[in-house]
Design goal:
- Belongs to the glycosyl hydrolase 3 family.
- GO terms for molecular function: hydrolase activity, hydrolyzing O-glycosyl compounds.
- This is Fibronectin type III-like domain-containing protein.
- This protein is an alpha/beta fold.
- Among the domains are: 106 residues, Immunoglobulin-like (Sandwich); 232 residues, Rossmann fold, CATH 3.40.50.1700; 122 residues, Sandwich (Immunoglobulin-like), CATH 2.60.40.10.
- The protein has 21 helices and 36 strands.
- The protein has a six-stranded mixed sheet with strand order 10-15-14-13-11-12, with helices on both faces. It has a five-stranded mixed sheet with strand order 2-9-8-4-5, with no helix packed on it. Strands 1-3-7-6 form a four-stranded antiparallel sheet.
- Strand 11, helix 3 and strand 12 form a beta-alpha-beta unit.
- It is globular.
- The mean pLDDT is 96.
Length: 859
Amino acid sequence: MGKPKFSLMDKTLNPEIVDGKMNAFVKVPYGIQVRLSHPLGKDGYGRVTVDGIPISRGKIFKLDMVIKADVLYLPVGEVAREFDREYTLELTGFKTAEGVPYPDCSFKIKTTAKSRPDPAFAENDEVALEAAREGMVLLRNEKGVLPLKEGAVLNCFGRGQYMYRNTSTGASMINPRWQPDFMDAIKEHSSFSVNEELSALYCYLQDVTPGGNMLEKAKEQSDTAVILISRTSGEFLDNHPDKGSYYLTDDEEAMIKAVTAVFDKTVAIINSGFPMDIAWTQKYGIDAVVYTGFTGMLSSYALMEILDGRTNPSGKLPDTWARDYYDSPAAHNFINFKEGDEIPGEKDKGVRLYYEEDIYVGYRYFDSFGKAPAYSFGHGLSYTDFALETGKPSFDGNNVTLQVTITNTGKRAGKETAQLYLHAPEGKLEKPYRVLAAFEKTKELKPGEKELLALTACASDFASFDEETGSYLLEAGTYEVYCGNSLAKAVLAGCFTVGKTETLRTVERVCRPVEEFKRLNRENGTAEAVSQLVDLDQRIRVRAPRPSYQPLPLKKHTGKKIIYAQVKENPGLMDEFVSQMSDKELCRMNVCGGSNWYLPWQNGEAGKTNVIKKYKMPRMLVSDGNTGINVKKKNIGMPCSASIAATFNKELAYRVGSVIAKESKAQNIYQNLGPGMNIHRNVLNGRHPEYFSEDPYLAGMMAGMHAKGMEDNGVGSCYKHMFCNNSDTSRKGSHSIVSERALREIYFRVFEVAIAVQKPSAVMTSYNAVNGIYPAENADVIQKLIRGEWGIDGMVMTDWGTYDTVDAVEMVKAGNCWLTEGSKKYSRLLEQAVKEGRLSRAVLERNVRSVISTMLKRV
């Protein structure tokens, strides 16, 4: 292997980015990557300094993508925080596993220049700011501590003031033109000043408890303390039910205890991508709590506006905040890794996840079982007061309609949300106590102003799935209609009666469980921890049969060559265009042309269609990005999807999608790999901020409006990940065991709601298996459900690298028409399968028709 050697993978650091792209693997802030030629020994970690100042211990991860290497991720940003400056990074005293010393070495690293807004994109930036304003949630405001007085001095506590996060890691990471941090926002976008002596304690990213003298001195400047708690979250790794992730660290708690003992007024800013422990706010008497979520490039500006009252908060929680993590039944059937555990790679281990909570996801559990949360679904305070007056609900056999008048009875302008919940009668089927069936948001109402909202809920939004008959039922009995500005505040508005049980529709049965498991109901009451981490080959204990669909072959076109432009002009030529292709060409079109996004020197495109030059085909580029365009060239940075859901503003979700589409086209990208809309089954899913909500109706409606904004403006959307992609650690070895009813009412339902709003140009299957078979190879899921029941005619693609754990040929046979991220290796693999008779030309033709169909809409 040669002599030990360090190699610097990226010589630049952007101090504006807390969590870099590779941070998804290790969760180390402000990091630089150093490649190790040899693995380090157990005691082989040496000393690392930046300009002679020691930094915290880095973390090692095994990169297994474009290159295979041990990579040391170092938090150089603890020191390298100034813009446009050179720093010296030194590594000394390192040893290999064999005890061979690494040569001491030093590297020069450069920080980037400070970013500034581009006036040409002012309108787009304003949409990002508006979404950030409405995506933040005021959880608590005792004694009217907020808003703060104009010109107040901010006594800021916690390293979160230097680690203010605006996005998640992985697929939904943003790369915005400019992104003012917390300190920038104080200086540039508020009348506040900051206690600089106090804030200087936290500049090295440690949660320090100031001494008593400093606390008293700070109190002389202002009687209000602002505590910032920040948590990362994103793709590849789930979060942990321990200190430093879901719970406070010991240092954070000691700091908070000391601060609250001195200050009369305290404000907590929770800058986290997921709901975390909130008990400490009660324990230490925190007066006001603002949940920022990850609200995009202008998150810090929106926060200043909420703190000083220029913006009246109107966000609502898209998830229940439990009093403790383990209050949720889903917490007991999740692989709860702790800090210090050896975390397996995404394909190193198998995971069996039993969805024992069944239909009782999120508020459906807390509301049905009488379990009090810390904050209910839909909760969110305002600086003003609103009165909600409802009429009597009416039901015409298909739709429930409720008129709601909302009046601003307070002293500040603001927006309010009306949320309609349905309680269905118990009949043959046990049901959640209430489900969200409609919501609307007012315009900004001045004091004394009112607005009449019409809420309409379709019967399909509160029907129940009967596993015995494969039907959606509207059972006979009395239905109660509740309305309020949160689930906890929803009151009975009226009732309607269904005289006899009605079957709304009967569906094809797909993805039914192949093994028995306990399901939570009101009789058995509690969940048990039965999910397991197992060897990869043991992840599927009982395998479901693999269905097969064999399409008819196309008649071979033998006439004059047809080129792409002719099909664009006359789509009726599609069959002839596809049938003229050779087997080799068809195989190439079934495979993505590779990605360009993993490493620092790549430009960030997630994939591209292969080009067959003789047909003069264009290349279609695709990129990740629920929140923007996840490429190297800077662009817009919208709030994460969970924060978009928190706005409860459909029109705003549409505008967010519209802006992303406009900026995508400017980068020649016409297919976006979003929105992702998996259910928030467990709050510790690493991709929690990337998805919308625990509720399928809210998530589906907001995702659908987001997608409609993109599609109406010329960029394709892609609904992902189908289905049950509800954890990310060991995701390629994960197996979800879930009831058919829960699939139909929760995990399929979110996509069904979105599709009713907007059919996407493409969909993406998930990494994980569901009920004994991977969706990516499940022809019933693709042909019966996605194509048949839902009418999707565009591309069905795999998630990137699904073929690591699923047979590529079987995925293509099932109808997955784009193997991603692809390479010539997989084109050749398909060619060989055709020669061996494992794969028919007719299947390839069927799949390529869908690929071309998607391309024709966009390029």
